[in-house]
Amino acid sequence: MHIDNCCNASDEIPVASSAIACDLVDSYHHAIYRIDTGPGSIALRIGQFSRSLSDLLNELKCTRAAIISAYNPYSQQLGHDENETAHRSLRKLLIHRSYPIIEGINLDPSGQWPVEKSFFVAGLDFDTAKFIGQKYSQNAILWMAEDAVPRLVLLR
């Protein structure tokens, strides 16, 4: 199925056309992206400014970040062991490249999709974030700039 920009919103960085179904893109928009920052956590929503995210970016002295998962490539639900293997591989790649990372999870409030582990990666440039998401066969990543508004980036 090939869909041309039927789902683009102002809080989404569009691709020229996308192979991702609109209902799946809607699921991404309704999800909660949680960054586990120690005693508390930061809950992010696509398109919504986050004071906590802004504070975290300032604390880390960076103006950009991404949230990337290796779970369920192209939204094909894998078993726990396969997802954990992919997650460990992503962690190893990010650590090898010396990116500061914080563990996180992606939650579907409707319960249709299982919880997915992810990483908040501080200081990652846009093209590298996309490359890593594509390397792990992801449909999308979240991108944040200094305005502290998470944006959906479709990768295919």
Key attributes of the depicted protein:
single chain; 156 residues; 8 strands; 29% helix
Q: Biggest β-sheet: count, sense, barrel?
A: 8 strands, mixed
Which residues sit in consecutive blocks of at least 5 with pLDDT less than 50? 1-6
N-to-C CA distance: 12 Å
Element order: H for helix, E for strand:
EHEEHEHEEHEE
Oligomer: single chain
- Shape verdict: globular
Beta-strand percent range: 15-25%
Q: Roughly how much helix do the residues carry, as a percent range?
A: 25-40%
Rg, Å, rounded: 14 Å
Helical/strand content category: alpha+beta
In the sheet with the most strands, the strands line up as: 1-8-7-4-6-5-2-3
The number of distinct β-strands equals: 8
Question: Can you describe this structure?
Answer:
With 156 residues, this protein is of the alpha+beta class. The protein has helices at residues 22-30, 51-59, 80-96, 126-135; strands at residues 12-13, 32-36, 41-44, 65-68, 101-107, 116-122, 140-144, 151-154. It has an 8-stranded mixed sheet, with helices on both faces. A hairpin with a 6-residue loop joins strand 7 and strand 8. It is globular, with a radius of gyration of 14 Å.
